[in-house]
Specification:
heterodimer, A: 72 residues, mainly alpha, two-stranded antiparallel ribbon, 5 helices, globular, B: 126 residues, 0% strand
Chain lengths: 72, 126
């Protein structure tokens, strides 16, 4: 699942290790989430959401969600 | 405060050392006292530090985060299946004259499969 984790981390000038410490996970987990190779559990997603103070929907991009077309 | 990885390595090394010491003592005792009434408990004595090794590994897994636990789970499943395949295959081969297989090596084989598959599964998440 695509996400904005890397961008948000860079905005705060955090390394992956620093973000991992704040989330109490390993640096490998942060790396895998950023690359979209691992989707976090709900509890971890909420933890990330609280850390960056934004809704989960703004952090993770659900590729299966279809954007409704605007009425003509 | 020790990092969890260093603490794990320390606990594992200590348990491994204990296993080596008990093993040497056990084998020495059995060689010098082949008819001792204590030969059965002495010969299985090395299993006790192996239990500590198992507890160290269980505690290590429980300290891992969700993704690392998933990686270990995948590696364990694959190594279990690979070991089972090997045992079944070798069982058939024994029917056509292959030498009998010491079951102690099943455990060692599973550890080797686990180490290899752990590297492969970790690479998948890089």
């Amino acid at each position: 699942m695509r996400n904005r984790l890397k961008v948000l981390r860079a905005e705060r000038d955090w390394t992956q290790a620093e973000l991992a410490d704040r989330l109490n996970v390993s640096r490998q987990t942060v790396n895998a989430i950023e690359k979209g190779k691992y989707d976090p559990s709900l509890s971890l997603a909420f933890k990330i959401s609280r850390l960056f103070d934004m809704p989960i929907e703004n952090l993770f991009i659900d590729e299966e969600t279809t954007i409704p077309s605007s009425p003509t | 405060m020790l990092s969890s990885s260093f603490r794990y390595a320390l606990e594992l090394a200590g348990s491994g050392l204990a296993y080596s010491v008990v093993l040497v003592v056990s084998l020495t005792f059995l060689r010098e006292n082949p008819d001792s009434p204590w030969r059965v408990p002495v010969t299985v004595a090395p299993v006790v530090p192996i239990v500590f090794i198992m507890l160290v590994m269980i505690r290590y897994i429980r300290r891992q985060d969700e993704m690392l636990r998933r990686i270990h789970l995948e590696a364990v499943i694959i190594s279990f299946l690979a070991t089972m395949m090997f045992c079944i295959t070798y069982g058939f081969l024994e029917n056509v004259g292959f030498p009998p297989f010491n079951t102690m090596f099943v455990g060692f084989g599973m550890v080797i499969f686990y180490a290899i598959t752990l590297l492969l599964v970790q690479w998948k998440y890089r």
